[in-house]
TrEMBL record, chain A:
Keyword Signal listed: yes
Keyword annotations: Signal
Lineage, top ranks: Bacteria, Pseudomonadati, Pseudomonadota, Alphaproteobacteria, Acetobacterales
Gene Ontology cellular-component annotations: plasma membrane
Domain ABC transporter substrate-binding protein PnrA-like: 46-290
Classification via PANTHER family: ABC TRANSPORTER SUBSTRATE-BINDING PROTEIN
InterPro entries the record matches: ABC-Purine-Binding, PnrA-like, TAT_signal
Species whose genome carries this gene: Acetobacter estunensis
Name of the featured protein: BMP family ABC transporter substrate-binding protein
TrEMBL record, chain B:
Gene Ontology CC: plasma membrane
Membrane-spanning parts: 12-36, 62-84, 91-107, 113-132, 144-162, 188-210, 240-257, 277-302, 314-333
Species lineage: Bacteria, Pseudomonadati, Pseudomonadota, Alphaproteobacteria, Acetobacterales
Pfam families: BPD_transp_2 (PF02653)
Name the record gives this protein: ABC transporter permease
This protein's record includes keyword Transmembrane helix: yes
Subcellular location: Cell membrane
Topological type in the membrane: Multi-pass membrane protein
Length: 368, 356
C-alpha cells in the first residue's frame, strides 16, 4: 500500500477513489466517449478564472507562468482571464460569461464548487477544469498538486531550525488543502523534533497581504520563530525578514522578499499540465478526470535558502529522496489534536485521504 | 439679468435630466480612457449591450442582481425616511442567510412550509441583529451609523465561523460552506427565482405604506421634523424602533433569497456587498421607496456590465472605478438639479437712495 502515483502523474479517472465520501458524484466519465469535437488552434478560446490578481507574486502568478508557457506551445490560441473571482454568485456569472463569449474550455484556478458546476451542467459542450475541486462530471474535472510531500520535507528543515519549537502558520480557510499543508509541515517537523508545536491563524482570504502581515506579527509575538503558511503572496516573509525569523513559503521562489529568512517554498509548475490538457481539448481527446500533479512533476520544494545549514538541507533532502523512491511519510500512528489515534500504527494515509483531511494533528492549535 | 439660484427642492424632471447628462458624461470619460488604452470602444459597448440587455442570459442575470439590491436598497430607504441611516444591511443580510440556512439544514418538511418559515426566521434574525443599534438609538441617542456598520464585521465572521466550524460541509469537505440546502426557492424564468417578483412587490408595498397610511405619514414627519412630530403627539420613538426593525428584516430577506434561491449554500463572502450597495441604491433612489426599483436596475446594469468587462481583461478595480465615477457624477448632478435659472429683478439693485 503506497500513496497514489508518487512517481508518475496519475489520472484518477472515474472520480476520486472508491469509498471516500458518499456525496462525491458517481462520476463515471463515460470512458472513450469523446463529446468534445477537435478544434483548430486559431479557433480555440480558453478562459481562466483566477482567485487573485496574476501579479500576486504567488499562486495566481504561478498559474499565469504555466499559461504563458502553454501559449508558447500554442501561439495561435486565444486565452482570456478574469482576476479575483469572488466565491459568490459572481463566480457563476463570470463562468457563464466565458461560455457566452464562446470559450470551449474554462479553467478555474481555485475551488469554485457549485458556482462552476452549475455553469458546467448547463454547458455540456464546454470542458471545465477546477483546481482543488472534488467532483468529476461528463464535462467537469479537477486537478491539484500533492503539495503535502513538499510541505513535509520543508517541515523537517523547520523542525531542525526552530529554537523555540514553536512554528507559526498563516492559514487562509480551514479547508482540507490548508489542513493537509499545516499537518504535513508539523508532522515533518515532529519527525526530527518531537517537541514541535504549531499555531495557526486563519485570515479568511487567499490574498490579503495586510491581514497576512498582522497574523504573522501576532504569531511572532507569541513566540513562533519559524513562519509558514499557504497565502498567495509573500507578505509574511517580509515580517520574518524584519524580525529576524525563518520562513517557508508557497507557490514560487520568493527569496528576494526576505533573503535572510527564506528557507524554501512549495514551488508549483502547472505548465506541463496545461499544455497536456489544452492539447487534449484541441485534438478532441479531452476527458473529464481528477488529476494529481505529484512531487517532482508540478510541485516540489524550492532550492534551499542561503541561510539554511547544508547538513539540515541534506537531512530534509534525504526524506525527499525516500518519498521520490515511493515511501510515504504519512504512516500511522497519527494522533489528532486531542491525542486520539486517528491513523492506526502501520496504516497509511494515501493522497485521497490527505486530500480530504479535516482534522488537526497533535500539537496543532487554531487550525480547525 | 439671468442667474442661477439654488432651491431647497429639486423636481423629478430636473433630477432625471441632470442624471442622464451625468451618465452620458461618465460613459464619455470611460470611453475616452478605454480608447486611450488602445481598446475598441465600439466593440466593447456592443458586447456589453449584447451580454446584459440584449440576451436572455443577460436579462436573467440582471433580475438576479436586482432582487437583493431592491431589498437592501429598500432597507436603507425606509430608515432614511425617518432621518436615520442603516449602514448594517450587510450584516443583516448575513443574519438572514444564517437564519434561512438553519431552517434549510435542520428543519425537514415540504417546500411550501419550509420556504415561508425560512423567510420568517431570516427576518427575525435580521431584526435581532439590528435590535441593539435600534434600542441604543431610540433610548440613548447612540449614532446608528456606527453601531450598525460595526456589526457587519461580526456578522461576516460569524458566517465564516459557522461555515468552517459547526455547520461546515462534511460531504464534499472542500468548500468554505455548508451543505447544499435541500430546499430551493423555485425558479420562474431561467435561473430567476421568486425572489425577484417578491422584491418588486415589497418595494411597491413599502411605497404604499409610506405614502398612503397614517403610520407612514408619522414616519415621514418624524424624519422631516422630529420636534414638530413630538409636539403633535406622534410616537416618534416607537416609529424609530419599528422602522429600524423593518429595515433589518428587509436586508435579511435579501439574504434569505440569496442563500435559498441563488447560492444554495451558506458561505462567507456570499453577500457580494449587496448590503453596502443597498446604500448606493438608496442614494440613487432619493428616499423614494418606488424609485428603489429603477435605482436597483441601474446598479444591476453596472454590476453586470462589470462582469462582461472583466472577461475583456479589464481589472475588477477598473470596473469599481467606473462605478465610482458614475456615482460621483450622479451625486453632482443631483446637486445641480437644485439650481434653476431665475430672472433677477433689476429694481432691487438700485433701490436705496434713489430719487428720480
Amino acid at each position: 500500500m503506497k500513496g497514489h502515483g508518487l512517481l508518475t502523474r496519475r489520472h484518477l479517472l472515474a472520480g476520486v477513489g472508491a469509498g471516500i465520501g458518499c456525496g462525491l458524484l458517481p462520476a463515471q466519465a463515460a470512458p472513450g466517449q469523446t463529446r468534445f469535437a477537435p478544434l483548430a488552434e486559431e479557433e480555440a478560446l480558453i478562459a481562466f478564472g483566477h482567485v487573485g490578481p496574476i501579479t500576486d507574486g504567488g499562486w495566481t502568478t504561478a498559474h499565469e507562468l504555466g499559461i504563458q508557457k502553454m501559449k508558447r506551445v500554442f501561439p495561435k490560441l486565444r486565452t482570456i482571464y478574469v482576476e479575483t473571482v469572488p466565491y459568490s454568485a459572481d463566480a457563476t456569472r463570470i463562468f457563464r460569461q466565458f461560455v457566452a463569449e464562446g470559450a470551449q474550455m474554462v479553467i478555474a484556478t481555485s475551488n469554485y464548487g457549485d458556482f462552476i458546476k452549475d455553469v458546467a451542467d448547463r454547458a455540456p459542450d464546454v470542458a471545465f477544469l477546477e483546481c482543488d475541486g472534488t467532483r468529476v462530471t461528463d464535462n467537469l474535472g479537477w486537478y491539484y498538486i500533492t503539495h503535502w510531500y513538499a510541505s513535509y520535507i520543508i517541515g523537517v528543515a523547520a523542525g531542525l531550525m526552530t529554537k523555540t519549537n514553536r512554528l507559526g502558520y498563516v492559514g487562509t480557510f480551514p479547508v482540507p488543502s490548508v489542513i493537509a499543508s499545516a499537518n504535513a509541515t508539523l508532522l515533518g517537523a515532529q519527525s526530527v523534533n518531537p517537541a514541535c508545536t504549531m499555531n495557526v491563524i486563519s485570515i479568511n482570504s487567499w490574498f490579503d497581504p495586510q491581514a497576512a502581515t498582522q497574523a504573522a506579527s501576532a504569531l511572532a509575538d507569541s513566540g513562533c520563530d519559524f513562519l509558514c503558511g499557504i497565502t498567495d503572496d509573500p507578505a509574511y516573509l517580509r515580517v520574518a525578514q524584519a524580525r529576524g525569523l525563518k520562513a517557508a513559503m508557497w507557490n514560487l521562489d520568493m527569496r528576494r522578499f526576505g533573503p535572510d529568512s527564506y528557507v524554501s517554498s512549495v514551488v508549483l509548475d502547472f505548465s506541463h499540465f496545461y499544455i497536456e490538457q489544452v492539447r487534449a481539448r484541441l485534438t478532441g481527446q479531452w476527458k473529464a478526470a481528477g488529476t494529481f500533479l505529484t512531487l517532482g512533476h508540478g510541485v516540489d520544494r524550492d532550492v534551499w535558502g542561503a541561510t539554511v545549514p547544508p547538513e539540515i538541507a541534506a537531512r530534509a533532502d534525504a526524506v525527499r529522496d525516500r518519498i521520490l523512491a515511493g515511501e510515504t511519510p504519512f504512516r500511522g500512528p497519527i494522533r489528532d489534536a486531542s491525542g486520539r489515534i486517528r491513523v492506526a500504527a502501520g496504516e497509511i494515509m494515501d493522497d485521497q485521504a490527505i486530500y480530504q483531511w479535516d482534522w488537526a494533528v497533535q500539537g496543532m492549535t487554531g487550525l480547525v | 439679468m439671468m442667474r442661477f439660484q439654488r432651491f431647497s427642492t429639486a423636481t423629478a424632471g430636473y433630477v432625471l435630466v441632470w442624471r442622464a447628462l451625468a451618465f452620458v458624461v461618465a460613459m464619455g470619460i470611460v470611453a475616452l480612457l478605454l480608447a486611450l488604452s488602445g481598446r475598441n470602444v465600439g466593440e466593447l459597448a456592443a458586447l456589453v449591450a449584447r451580454s446584459t440587455l440584449g440576451s436572455r442570459f443577460g436579462l436573467e442575470d440582471l433580475a438576479l442582481f436586482m432582487a437583493p439590491l431592491v431589498l437592501t436598497g429598500s432597507a436603507v430607504t425606509v430608515t432614511s425616511r425617518i432621518g436615520l441611516w442603516n449602514i448594517g444591511g450587510e450584516g443583516q443580510f448575513y443574519l438572514g442567510a444564517i437564519g434561512a440556512a438553519a431552517v434549510g439544514l435542520f428543519v425537514h418538511g415540504p417546500a411550501v412550509v419550509i420556504l415561508p418559515l425560512m423567510a420568517v426566521v431570516a427576518m427575525v434574525c435580521g431584526m435581532a441583529w439590528i435590535a441593539v443599534p435600534t434600542l441604543a438609538r431610540a433610548f440613548a441617542g447612540v449614532n446608528e451609523i456606527i453601531t450598525t456598520l460595526l456589526l457587519n464585521f461580526v456578522a461576516e465572521l460569524l458566517t465564516y465561523w459557522l461555515t468552517t466550524g459547526p455547520w461546515r460541509d462534511r460531504v464534499t469537505g472542500a468548500l468554505v460552506s455548508t451543505e447544499r440546502l435541500p430546499v430551493a426557492v423555485p425558479e420562474i424564468w431561467g435561473v430567476v427565482h421568486w425572489g425577484f417578483p417578491v422584491a418588486i412587490l415589497v418595494a411597491c408595498g413599502l411605497s404604499l405604506l409610506m405614502s398612503r397610511t397614517s403610520w407612514g405619514y408619522e414616519v415621514r414627519v418624524s424624519g422631516a421634523n422630529p420636534g414638530a412630530a413630538r409636539y403633535a403627539g406622534m410616537p416618534t420613538r416607537a416609529r424609530i424602533v419599528a422602522v429600524m426593525l423593518l429595515s433589518g428584516a428587509l436586508a435579511a430577506l435579501a439574504g434569505m433569497f440569496e442563500v435559498a434561491g441563488t447560492v444554495h449554500r451558506l458561505q462567507g463572502g456570499m453577500s457580494d456587498n449587496f448590503g453596502y450597495l443597498g446604500i448606493v441604491v438608496a442614494v440613487l433612489a432619493r428616499r423614494s421607496c418606488l424609485a428603489v426599483i429603477p435605482a436597483a436596475f441601474l446598479m444591476a446594469l453596472i454590476l453586470d456590465a462589470g462582469i462582461v468587462l472583466q472577461t475583456q481583461q479589464l481589472a475588477a478595480t477598473a470596473v469599481l472605478a467606473i462605478t465610482g465615477l458614475v456615482l460621483l457624477l450622479v451625486a453632482i448632478a443631483d446637486e445641480l438639479a437644485h439650481y434653476r435659472p431665475v430672472v433677477a429683478e433689476p429694481v432691487r439693485r438700485s433701490a436705496p437712495g434713489v430719487s428720480s
